[in-house]
Amino acid sequence: xxxxxxxxxxxxxxxxxxxxxxxxxxxxxxxxxxxxxxxxxxxxxxxxxxxxxxxxxxxxxxxxxxxxxxxxxxxxxxxxxxxxxxxxxxxxxxxxxxxxxxxxxxxxxxxxxxxxxxxxxxx
Length: 123
Hints:
Blueprint: H1 3-32, H2 36-57, H3 62-85, H4 91-120
Helix pairs in contact: 1-2, 1-3, 3-4
């Protein structure tokens, strides 16, 4: 994979990570918002999250991008609920989130390999 292509993909994956962080914010906002301004922040987080996902989906395979977005958002939301709001965290949750993140990392690695092969003309 050329350096330029790799840099473009890294930017798109960065958008997915940032979108997932905003997803964590809006999911928590849906549960905990009670003031009008908290709802506004939640709506803005939804808009930013989906905007970044849509932009990244223009260059990345949409299914993979969405799976990574949801996986990171899920792991982040469970972690934030535990750290910020004292939600119980059972060992099975930790193991399943680890499995989810392993799948997300695997999808990203396979996607980069697919782009490398496409660049060389191999389908």
